[in-house]
Predict the structure of DNA methylase.
Amino acid sequence: MTQPRVFGEGPLAPATRTGRVPRPRLLDLFSCAGGAAMGYHRAGFAVDGCDIADRPNYPFPYHHGDALTYLADLIASGEIRRYSAVHASPPCQHGCALTVGTNASQGWGRAHVDLVAPTRDLLDATGLPYMIEQPNGRAVIRKDLTLCGEMFGLGVIRHRNFELGGWTAPRPAHVPHRGRVRGYRHGRFYDGPYVAAYGNGGGKPSVPELQTAMGITWTDVREELTEAIPPAYTEFIGRAYLAATGTLGAAA
């Protein structure tokens, strides 16, 4: 009898002695502290990360180096075929709403490099399904999915857009927000059911509040928390991918 095979676990991924199929493997580029990675792990993937910064809090194996160089090397060597899918969160400062809105109008900030297009070019070259994540703003991606913390009962809004390459997923309806994001706006304090997962001051949440609101417990570094994707987002995407590709049995 032919053994079940899951692409992403080497030449052949046989069922284990318990009859459970090994998890498909996902590459997490620009991985930061692992918000996206944890969601994919909970959905049923084995995850490897890559980030140019040292990320000791990343909860899975990762490569410390430039994500695009690393991806190009994996493609050239053929090692990319160990993976079943790739997630990428290229730096978003070039096109995010804050950079092109408030900061630009006030002459604040600095020039930022747009890595979305070169990331997509390399992802297309892998021949694998992929996900590109970006916040609201002017980043040029196809918004196949737009997710919000209220969809998952989180204490943040944190809208994020996802371009899906080589596969499709149902688009969930956007859930109306229950109120405002807590904090100061133009010198006035507003209360609300959500915390602001960015910056410092201005009524911003404490680190424990951020951890609770985002659903992230393995790092207490504010910068990592404010840059992260809530794991609930990518758990939703990961489960949709496994359903779409018929590999639901991979979840361990």
In short: The chain has seven helices and nine strands. The first helix runs from residue 35 to 43.
